[in-house]
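quick one
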Amino acid sequence: MSLAHLREVSELRLALNQSRLAGRSVAVVPTMGALHRGHQELVRWARTLADEVAVTIFVNPTQFGPGEDFDRYPRPLEADLLRAREAGATLVFAPSAREMYPPGEDTRVQVGRLAEGLCGASRPGHFVGVATVVAKFFSLFAPATFVFGQKDYQQLKVIERMATDLLYDVRIASHPIVREPDGLALSSRNVYLSQEERKAALGIPRALHAAASALLAGERNGARLLEIAESTLGRQALAVEYVELRDADSLEPRALDGEIALPTLLAIAARSGATRLIDNIVLGRDAVPEVG
Ligand code: AMP
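structure w/ adenosine monophosphate:
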């Protein structure tokens, strides 16, 4: 099937009207580009959920803070188009910032408690930027199925809440984390890592693996599970931002004393060199990740 590459909202509206008239359902995979096998898995899965799959490619300026990597974020558009097509996308929407944020724009989506803590603590305003741009995509594509990865778990929860609260006619589908054979979660930011930094980064999936294995082996104490993750992480080689246990649905912090309730999110953010990496597992729900 051919791949339509659209840049303007008006073109997209026309294309989506045609799909609707033809009775074809649409699934959407929002991305910031620099597509990797993880994104491609989302696209392949999306194909099973709808007749057409749109991939959005947009490095959203409002979700980056000062000093973050907005300017140097990779933007290999030609390679992305090939990868999107290879995975079965029928449409790529890659708008300019001006298209998504019309001149004079002055509107943001306010987010609540789910956006507090974890990544919200170190990236003030991040989830407002995410919610705002995703709301725009919801407005453009609804009714549609939207596919998000569980790698950005807090983002997924914020977006699910927003879709419900703002009454969008969308279905949210979430895909498990796609990993390298050695356990590292695929990320567009992995290209920043030197060999040494990549090696250090493996402490993250190993920490998730260790805690999940301990749980399977019968460890139920929250503090102990956290300690197992922390001690496996390799703090010497990584700058750890957080290692936390939270309710997998409300994201409320889990009490650590005594037996932990399940399912519980174990979420980690750490820097390897200058590169910020995030990863997670839902204990009591996800399979134990394989690590090298
Ligand atoms: P990004 O381009 O990094 O903003 O990611 C776009 C979408 O792909 C988000 O829903 C991410 O959660 C998802 N994603 C990115 N990397 C992975 C991965 N390794 N496994 C599963 N989903 C991913």
